[in-house]
Amino acid sequence: MIESVNFAKELMQTNRELRSEVNALAERCDASENENFHLQTENRELRDRIEILESVIASTNFGEAFDKLDWRQLFKHES
């Protein structure tokens, strides 16, 4: 009988610990999902800006010199 009571106490303690771990993991998961949502939103906005800039560039007429421009060097210079 005493062993059964002790076993039940151990099970309850283990259950509390597991519940605490599950809650902590759920909070981390929620935080990660929230961060992911914000990153996806930012990514979408940046893609839209790139698309606008590409359309502006495409509508300008700078000739072959513009087409041969090394964008990597330009971005390095601006950084």
Attribute tags:
rod-shaped
Explain this structure to me?
With 79 residues, this protein is mainly alpha-helical. The chain has one domain (2-78). It has helices at 2-59, 64-67, 71-78. The chain is rod-shaped, with a radius of gyration of 29 Å.
Mean pLDDT: 86
Terminus-to-terminus distance: 74 Å
Radius of gyration: 29 Å
Given as residue ranges, the uncertain stretches (5+ residues, pLDDT < 50) are none
Count of all domains: 1
User: What would you call the shape?
Assistant: rod-shaped
* Estimated structural class: mainly alpha
The helical percent reads over 70%
Give the amount of beta strand, in percent: under 5%
**What's the SSE pattern?**
HHH
Oligomer: single chain
Please report the total strand number as a whole number.
0
* Largest sheet entry: none
